[in-house]
Known about the structure:
single chain; alpha/beta; globular; two-stranded antiparallel sheet
Amino acid sequence: MNKTPIFQLNxxxxxxxxxxxxxxxxxxxxxxxxxxxxxxxxxRHIDTAVAYFNEEEVGRAVKDSGVAREEIxxxxxxxxxxxxxxxxxxxxxxxxxxxGVDYLDLYLLHQPYGKLSEAWKAMVEAKAAGKIRSIGVSNxxxxxxxxxxxxxxxDEMRPSVNxxxxxxxxxxxxxxxxxxxxQVILEAWGPLGxxxxxxxxxxxxxxxxxxxxxxxxxxxxxxxxxxxxxxxxKSVHKERMQSNQDIFDxxxxxxxxxxxxxxxxGQGRHNPDAAGVEEMLLSAFDVHKQD
Length: 291
């Protein structure tokens, strides 16, 4: 594998630009096996969340990999069920315990609703205590970012990342301008469009893939990397996991980048600004049901 490049966050920490995501990877051993395989293949950035219900398997795989803890970047996310201050403090401790680690490299507010200020306060304190190295947010649109910024949420400490839906059909152009002003890096969930067949059949992407003897998925990930986006595609298949990280031995030209930028449709599959989303997510499940 080509060595994964590193991006520097606004707090000075250095994060691998490509990682391995475990959203919707089943538990009961599947997540453990997938993460162990990913680390063996050279991945050094694992992205999980309380709401994925697989933190324990991620932690066991990291421990059993034989790779030193400090060489693996671990991200998890707090669910909005736990945003009240005391709950948030406990949620951080629970994630540390389930992962079996002394610190998290990155911890995010998974959804941008509810008692964010209380949860953010707990995360800032945990960062100061060395329990979290970097903190950030997720699914925060430009509208929601502006709302919370105006309310002073980030006065004490800015987020280092904002993890949002991102792929060639949804390039978050307005949000990225706002993030750039605050030196906040975007992380892409669904960087391959969640397997969108139409996207993979785009002639522009297929032409570029043929030119470099790459597949369309690799071209998409390379485009996102050159845009300065952190990506962590998900797969449990060894060949695809290898393929997804084989994107650092070619470079797209400015014309090729522009041709992919032109695919942007300005909207994704998930709209955090839509009415009722907060209520729907809050009632979606209980993250403590297995505790």
